[in-house]
Design goal:
This protein has 2 domains: about 60 residues, Alpha-Beta Plaits; about 260 residues, Aldolase class I (TIM Barrel, Alpha-Beta Barrel), CATH 3.20.20. Helices cover about 30% and strands about 20% of the residues. The chain has 10 helices and 14 strands. Bound molecules: phosphoenolpyruvate (PEP) and manganese (II) ion.
Length: about 350
């Protein structure tokens, strides 16, 4: 971090500032120019409050050289993180295919979809039990019953399960859940993230619909700062001026995140596009770009789905897509193996 002091900065105040920074454990590199003095801070500056320093009387400008996230930063952890989900791995060359309905609706639906996506090669089952819906009148999920049905589908198929946690008070109900999903709307629910830092279960963190990649990494940092390093990032489309798709899939996120972090990256083409026929091309593009996994909505009867039927693939469509993804993985931007 570099602090540029004001011309004619009061020497007493400058001394107070340097003392304050030294007390925080930094080595200082002072560079005296003809008009300005520059202080270079040497050490981990991720905990420094840049706004506080900027607001001081003697300070003209502050610039961060190092990213404000440390645990998630590839600079401090060169090797890809591999997250092991009950035997299904993601990251470091392992590709994960997550598939299932938007919401768990009933026993036949979840078990039927689980069996068919498993036969197509999916290695994790998705299904919402607590649903974040824009309308309070829309189907909100089956709650505890939904979790119970997911557990049953897990028992029948052997597939690990992922489902969304909206309220930390529900965590005791999630004992059998293998990956906890933090939805786009909760990406910056910092109290929720801190609590998820206290457990060791994998967390799939979805990018908020109006959040930058740096904000996504800062949210991952909240979880990791608590000691939970099993974080999987998810690009699921962002809000733009475009209305032809539900969101705009920011595929460049895969390339950018790959450089900035060692955490695995999943792409969700279902919520990104919102339209069934756009899901396969975007899923293939994500795999080709080097995403470590996909999360795809699949429903046995999309026209009658209680949630997100328009973007859901049928089991047959998912089967064709899974074959196509498998075929292109050897040509992906990164070597990926889907076991
Ligand atoms: C979901 O995966 O069901 C979901 C609600 O996604 P998002 O949080 O990305 O909108
Ligand atoms: Mn959905």
């Amino acid at each position: 971090m570099i602090i540029l002091l004001k011309e004619n900065a009061n020497p007493k105040q400058v001394e107070n500032l340097t003392k304050f920074l030294k007390n925080k454990g930094f080595d200082l590199h002072m560079s005296q120019g003809t008009e300005h003095t520059i202080i270079g801070l040497i050490g981990d500056t991720s905990t420094v409050d840049i706004d506080l320093i900027s607001s001081l009387d003697v300070v003209e400008a502050v610039r961060r050289i190092q990213e404000p996230y440390k645990n998630a930063n590839r600079k401090f952890h060169a090797a890809d993180t591999v997250v092991d989900v009950a035997g299904a791995k993601i990251g470091g060359g392992h590709f994960m295919m997550i598939a299932g309905p938007c919401s768990v609706e009933n026993r036949d639906q979840i078990i039927g979809v689980a069996e068919s996506v498993k036969a197509s090669g999916a290695n994790v089952l998705r299904g919402g039990a607590f649903k974040p819906r824009t309308s309070p009148y829309a189907f909100q999920g089956l709650h505890e019953e939904g979790l119970r049905l997911l557990s049953e589908a897990k028992k029948v198929t052997g597939l690990p399960i992922i489902t969304e946690l909206m309220d930390i008070n529900h965590l005791p109900l999630f004992g059998d859940v293998d990956i906890i999903q933090v939805g786009a709307r909760n990406m910056q629910n910092f109290e929720l993230l801190k609590e998820l830092g206290q457990i060791r279960k994998p967390v799939l963190l979805k990018r908020g619909m109006a959040n930058t990649l740096q904000e996504l990494l800062m949210s991952a940092e909240y979880i990791m700062a608590g000691g939970n390093e099993n974080v999987i990032l998810c690009e699921r489309g962002i809000r733009t001026f475009e209305t032809a798709t539900r969101n705009t899939l920011d595929l460049s996120a895969v390339a950018v995140l790959r450089k900035q972090t060692h955490l695995p990256i999943v792409v969700d083409p279902s919520h990104a596009t919102g339209i069934n026929e756009y899901v396969p091309p975007m899923a293939l593009a994500a795999a080709a770009a080097g995403a470590d996994g996909l999360i795809i909505e699949v429903h046995n009867d999309p026209p009658h789905a209680l949630c997100d039927g328009k973007q859901s693939l049928t089991p047959e469509q998912f089967d064709s897509l899974a074959k196509a993804v498998r075929a292109i993985l050897p040509f992906a931007a990164k070597e990926l193996v889907w076991e």
